[in-house]
Amino acid sequence: MISSVRGTVLHVGLNHVVIEVGGVGLQVHTTPATAAECRTGTEARLATTLVVREESLTLYGFPGAEGRALFEQVQTVSGVGPRLALAMLSVHAPEEVRRAISTGDLAALTKVPGIGKKSAERLVLELRDKIMVGVDQPEGAPAATPAAALGAAQEQVREALVGLGWSAKQAEDALGRVAAGPDAPTQVSELLRAALRELGR
Q: What is the pTM of this model?
């Protein structure tokens, strides 16, 4: 997986940039806002994720890991692919997407082209409990709850599974099955072992 790229910006389009890395120009699909922040001839660094299809390899880039993680997470929902995930981040900032999902704000979600009421309801239903841990807490908020601790552990394990070669969806599905049990492990090492057992079935 290509998790980031850094190099000279060769070209800036409406929703993509070309960045030269080691003498190779990589086309990176981005939101219009991210592309607008890049300047031809200057250096840029983007957090990236590579989407592999039979007929193509497509690189998507984000200003930071937060946007990349959300881009990957929303694609675990049926019917949400890379283009729709990028459209969500083009309309809303990552924290706004997380807040809309965690609070069930269907009006905000349906502002995204391609997302109707049913798709918005499915996003909320499938991701609300998983995404709430990512909503920023105000200063003075209480320490992380067990649910938040589990969410943090799941995120680490998901990244580890993707790094081992499984897709984000496969990793998310395996973690979902593990977490559904009454005695779901909360430690990263135990959670990883349980997820690997699920993937090996």
A: 0.64
